[in-house]
Write a structure and sequence with these properties.
This protein is mostly helical and 127 residues long. Helix content is 69%, strand content 0%.
């Protein structure tokens, strides 16, 4: 089922891909790649809570620090407005692979839009 899910995903048939990966997980709930792939399909379908759940499942099962997987969940959490959690996963990605470009870009995109704006002086007004 996992391979069929991948074929359907590549053809753009996301709903069929989801069904195949869910079937694969019924057979083997510990199949990391199926959780990760299912998360990706849910993300493309805009089903972000489900995507985050599947990415968390994959992270929990994975024996490795997977920088790409950390970036995947960070991207979804960012879209859900959970920016602190997203930043934490981007940092985990960078800890796994220092300088990992998607994590660096993701963190940069989380920064305030105008980090150089004047900061009010504690006594009021601007310095």
């Amino acid at each position: 089922h996992s391979n069929l899910g991948s074929i359907c995903f590549q053809k753009g048939d996301l709903e069929s891909a989801v069904r195949h990966w869910q079937a694969a997980l019924e057979i083997d709930p510990g199949h990391i790649r199926s959780h990760q792939n299912l998360g990706g399909a849910f993300e493309k379908l805009g089903r972000l809570e489900e995507a985050a759940h599947e990415y968390r499942q994959a992270i929990g099962l994975s024996p490795a620090n997977d920088a790409a997987l950390f970036c995947s969940i960070a991207r979804v959490l960012r879209r859900l407005g959970q920016t602190d959690q997203a930043a934490a996963y981007y940092r985990r990605s960078l800890a796994a692979v220092p300088g990992y470009p998607p994590a660096q870009q993701g963190l940069a995109e989380l920064r305030p839009q105008n980090p150089l704006r004047p900061v009010p002086h504690p006594q009021g007004g601007f310095p």
